[in-house]
From TrEMBL:
Annotated source species: Trichinella pseudospiralis
GO biological process: DNA integration
SUPFAM superfamilies linked to this entry: Ribonuclease H-like
Gene from which the chain derives: POL
Limits of the Integrase catalytic domain: 1-164
Full protein name: Retrovirus-related Pol polyprotein from transposon
Span list, region Disordered: 295-338
Taxon lineage: Eukaryota, Metazoa, Ecdysozoa, Nematoda, Enoplea
InterPro entries: Integrase_cat-core (IPR001584), Integrase_p58-like_C (IPR054465), Retrovirus_Pol_polyprotein (IPR050951), RNaseH-like_sf (IPR012337), RNaseH_sf (IPR036397)
Pfam families per the UniProt record, alphabetical: Integrase_p58_C, rve
Origin: domain of life: Eukaryota
Molecular-function GO term, any one: nucleic acid binding
Length: 338
């Protein structure tokens, strides 16, 4: 796992589209989500469609106009984000546009994680009328950005602006007394000092969280590293199924990074694809299948101490040769590949 890091606000912003949701009376069906990787400040805007022109217009008029242009804008390879109008907007503001590998949502993890949170919060607030989710969206964002984030230890508002958002509870309970005679230069100096302290604490907290997440991810990862000319299976997501289907064999033609490869199908050799290692696993050749046939297929997978009544009386082999031949004649494998 290679975590995406950011060291200051708007250094890297993740962009994603959530939907389609239930159509509202205003015609909205989608949500454009923009999440700052450092502060975790998140903005969400309802959309009637996910066309590139609509995305670029909202990005300019409702995000860049209020917060300024980010250094880097990261998204998946959706057509809405890769269109010419979005590229031209990024060029105009000197925004570096990056993208994740196809079918690899972890590459845009910030926005993907918030999508799940947003759906949960909207479900609670729109329990009685789910067609009013766009009217509740601004209230959900107020609650999210004024809540302490586990990764940073502070609220997204404090991390972004150096102050907390004033909420109805602050008015009811009474907010801390402010010095209304303070001069602007003093306020700027104190705010800058406060932000520097908060950001330094956040960097330490984020580094700790990223190391912890990387350790957990690497511990669970089963994929190894591949070399050029290796043959692999490629996971192809299938709509409506619990597991992807595995297609192949593909050949590794180029290593682009620690976990990114360019692959080419053995039969469709003109076209290549850039994929993440999460979608690859070693291809089983016919020689491997022959070797598997010759190995005994155990009945007991425990510690090796068979109960007397369950002790095998003879060697038992695996599936018949005909069944295995049929399995390996297939061009793809589904589920876990067995």
């Amino acid at each position: 796992m290679q975590p995406m890091t950011a060291g200051y606000p708007l250094q890297r912003v993740g962009m994603d589209i959530l939907g389609p949701l239930e159509k509202t009376p205003s015609g909205n069906r989608y949500v454009l989500v923009l999440t700052d990787y450092f502060t975790k400040w998140t903005a969400a805007f309802p959309l009637t469609n996910m066309e590139a022109d609509t995305v670029a217009k909202v990005l300019m008029e409702k995000y860049i106009a209020y917060f300024g242009a980010p250094d880097c804008l990261h998204s998946d390879q959706g057509r809405s984000f890769e269109a010419r109008v979005v590229r031209e907007l990024c060029r105009l503001f000197d925004i570096k546009k990056t993208r994740s590998s196809p079918y690899h949502p972890q590459g845009n993890g910030q926005a993907e994680r918030f999508n799940r949170t947003l759906l949960d919060m909207l479900s609670i607030m729109c329990e009685e009328n789910r067609q009013q989710w766009d009217e509740m969206l601004s209230f959900v964002m107020l609650a999210y950005n004024s809540s302490v984030n586990e990764s940073t230890g502070v609220t997204p508002a404090m991390a972004m602006f150096g102050r907390e958002l004033q909420l109805p509870l602050d008015i009811q309970m009474g907010s801390p007394q402010r010095n209304d005679t303070e001069t602007l230069p003093n306020y700027i100096r104190q705010t800058r000092e406060r932000i520097n302290i908060v950001h330094e604490q956040m960097r330490r907290q984020l580094n700790l969280q990223q190391r912890r997440q990387k350790s957990l991810y690497d511990r669970k990862a089963t994929q190894g590293t591949f070399r050029v000319k290796d043959l692999v299976w490629l996971a192809i997501p299938r709509g409506g199924r619990l597991h992807p289907c595995w297609e192949g064999p593909y050949e590794i033609v180029q290593t682009l990074g620690p976990h990114t490869y360019r692959v080419r199908h053995q039969e469709r050799r003109r076209r290549t694809m850039v994929v993440h290692s999460d979608r690859l696993k070693k291809y089983v050749t016919q020689e491997d299948a022959d070797e598997t046939r010759r190995r005994p297929f155990p009945l007991w997978y425990g510690s090796g101490n068979y109960p007397k009544e369950q002790q095998p009386k003879e060697n038992v082999t695996g599936p018949s040769v005909e069944v295995r031949d049929e399995l390996f004649r297939r061009r793809g494998q589904c589920g876990d590949g067995t």
